[in-house]
Amino acid sequence: MKDLKQNVRPKILIVDDDADFCAITTLGLKELGYDVVTALSAGDALDIMRTNKPDLVLMDIALEEQFDGIQVAEQIRSDFGTAVVYLTGHADNFIVRHAKTTEPFGYIVKPVKLDELKAAIEVALHNARTESELKNLNRRLEEANLKLRDFAHVVSHDLKTPLRGIRRLTEWIAKDCANVLTPDGKKHVQQITERVDRMYSFIDKTLEYSSVEDKDEDKSVVDLGELVHSVIETIDMPENVTITIENQLPVYECNETRIAQVFQNILGNAVKYMDKPQGQIRVGCVEEESFWKFSVKDNGPGIEEKYFDKVFELFKTLVPPDKGGGTGIGLATVKRIVEMYGGSVWLESEPGRGSTFFFSLPKCEATSENEKSTATATVTK
Ligand code: ADP
Q1: Fold of 11-112
Q2: What's the CA-to-centroid distance between 328 and ligand 1, angstroms?
């Protein structure tokens, strides 16, 4: 849609095969400060749209044939994005319903009073301006997001290349100078390697977080039971920790990688922060009327209530990196993905006794009412 300037005289196109109506309305509207052009047929209207670019179209519904005005309005909306207000002598339900599908900016029943027409025109112009600003804003936002994603990729690549070099050099130093390094020297070399690895993980996770933005990314019907099993396979699991899938998980239409990231981050944390000799993690799922509610319960250290919201914020970590904490990006990524799917994420916890992370995913059309995973609920590791 073209930008509508508030200070210039708005240009109105009247499309009506009643020449007298066109002439009288044109006079009235000109007196009220509008520029007016008229078209007596659909063909003329489309020609004027191309050459004169009006700000608003007043469209007679019963143009030539019975509903021809609605078809022309549809074409005007799709080709030019211009706002349309219908004029009609027939306001029966069927016509109104049909006209509504073309998202008009107003509907006026003839005979038209000039002051009512002016009010309708002003409201329609205002709404058209708002729509146009919103579209511009959305376009600019999309462009900015794209640039940001490109920027994140470039920065990630440019940072990783020297890091790779540093890592390789420290490996050489550790190997070639093993005989000459003091115990402190060896410890320092080891610390460099660990910090480089942390930096690597930070870059990857930041990139992962910044790439969560596209609702329309590829989706498929995913067996979440199988997905959780394969996520568990990728986790570096200590001997003392077991993960149990307690119920059958649904089959769900989603982007597999994104939902895997959700489970990976929550399960990965449950394992990483486990502080009990017998670590127990349970994955569950409850079917609610309009959504699936998933839970990951652990008997780890728990989280104080004052941090329940904080842990989902970007870069918020309760454990410093040198004490086993991470980047503070994992749960922020979980929140972003789950919210992108229209769900929400929250937690319950008792310090010292464990935490349960919950997230919901709205049921989607492709998943039939009770369709469940074929993967069995078993202790996995
Ligand atoms: P991090 O990279 O620090 O793990 P996250 O965003 O994944 O970042 O988690 C944020 C913080 O939440 C963590 O630093 C940790 O203190 C806390 N946390 C997350 N999961 C658990 C859990 N299962 N048990 C205890 N604390 C947790």
Answers
A1: Rossmann fold (3.40.50)
A2: 7
